[in-house]
Amino acid sequence: MKKIVSILVALLITLAFAGCQSSDKSAKPAVFNEEDVLEDLEITRYSYQYDFYGRTVYAECFEVENTSAFNIALTGEFHYFDESQNLITVGTRTRDVLGPDQKTVLSHHQETPYSNCELKLSVSLEEERISAASKLSYEITQVGNKLIIAVTNNGDQTAEFVSAFVFYFKDGQPVAQASMGLFDVDHEFKPGKTITEEFAPVTVEFDSYKVYLHGQIKQ
User: Which of 45, 51, 93, 215 has a CB 3.0–4.6 Å from the CB of 162, allowing a cystine?
Assistant: First the structure.
């Protein structure tokens, strides 16, 4: 009987230790490290082209999800290469603050044909501001090829630089995008307030869309 009890105790200790290991592995680090944050970013690439007054424009878009525990500032360099992998043009996009478990899109448009595009990301710890996105909610009304968005600040602090970005899709592929700022006469987004705006109608067919909200709150 003692032998059976000893085996059970040992098994419980082993399971508890394994559980601690699993928990430690999934826990987000408490100290900011740029390399660790960059390695953990979830990135999805979208690309498409469209006609702009008879000119072909190429759009490269990267959805970036911040899986860290930190509010980060994000910079993305778009590097375009020809078939011989020669660098032919570049572009830069930034996001002032992206909160934990939140998504954004870095988008760059240009008219030079290319073979490949690479996104080079850098991040830094944002300590003066936090993301307001988790405090914002939205409702969408679709009227034909136009979207009307109503955004509410559900927090108890004033948000600044609030904006909405929308991606339009057809059969799972991006076909258009749009963005707009959301603020009152004081250029703020006060607690409890709802602001309703409409995106300009798109000239292409779409069957779905994704919305991304951005904003910041001073610490």
Answer: 215
